[in-house]
């Protein structure tokens, strides 16, 4: 799905997504990644959502978000409550949703200059 959105100059945005890929600006990404205000981070997440652990979320926290959007693939799935509590203890909200919704919400929040990171697993 192409997202018809014109972000303010200098704001990173997710341009499109589909089964097995997302596009940030002109960069096609085909593996789990974190999209944050400073760019795309391909090395922070495991290959599968089921492998997501505290060490991965600690890496995302190091980017300084106030909100982490967890795109869980084609449908919304939930992670262990201990991971949610870990981020809450750091003062960071963790919202879990399907990856398409996470891409769209990332664009909205980033355009508002919010400190947001989207941890995205492919659809």
In short:
The chain is α/β, with parallel strands linked by helices and 123 residues long. The chain contains three helices and eight strands; from the N terminus they run E-E-E-E-E-H-E-H-E-H-E.
What does this structure look like?
This protein has 123 residues and is α/β, with parallel strands linked by helices. The protein has a single domain, classed as 3-Layer(aba) Sandwich (Hypothetical Protein Mth938, Chain: A). 24% of the residues lie in helices and 29% in strands. The protein has 3 helices and 8 strands; from the N terminus they run βββββαβαβαβ. The strands form 2 sheets. Strands 5-4-8-6-7 form a 5-stranded mixed β-sheet, with helices on both faces. Strands 1-2-3 form a 3-stranded antiparallel β-sheet, with helices on one face. Strand 1 and strand 2 form a beta hairpin. The model has no long low-confidence stretch (mean pLDDT 94).
- Give Rg in angstroms: 13 Å
Structural class by sheet pairing and helices: alpha/beta
Order of helices and strands: EEEEEHEHEHE
Q: Provide the number of structural domains.
A: 1
Question: What is the straight-line distance between the termini?
Answer: 11 Å
What is the architecture at the second tier of CATH?
A: 3-Layer(aba) Sandwich
The total of helices stands at 3
Spatial strand order of the main sheet: 5-4-8-6-7
According to CATH, the homologous superfamily is MTH938-like
């Amino acid at each position: 799905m192409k997202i018809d959105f014109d972000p303010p100059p200098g704001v990173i945005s997710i341009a499109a997504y589909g089964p097995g890929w997302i596009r940030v600006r002109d960069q096609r990404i085909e593996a789990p990644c974190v999209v944050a205000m400073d760019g795309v981070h391909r090395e922070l997440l495991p290959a599968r959502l089921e492998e997501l652990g505290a060490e991965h979320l600690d890496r995302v926290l190091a980017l300084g978000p106030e909100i982490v959007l967890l795109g869980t693939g084609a449908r919304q799935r939930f992670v262990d409550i201990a991971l949610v509590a870990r981020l809450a203890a750091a003062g960071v909200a963790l919202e879990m949703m399907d990856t398409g919704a996470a891409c769209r919400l990332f664009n909205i929040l980033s355009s508002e200059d919010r400190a947001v990171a989207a941890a995205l697993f492919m659809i």
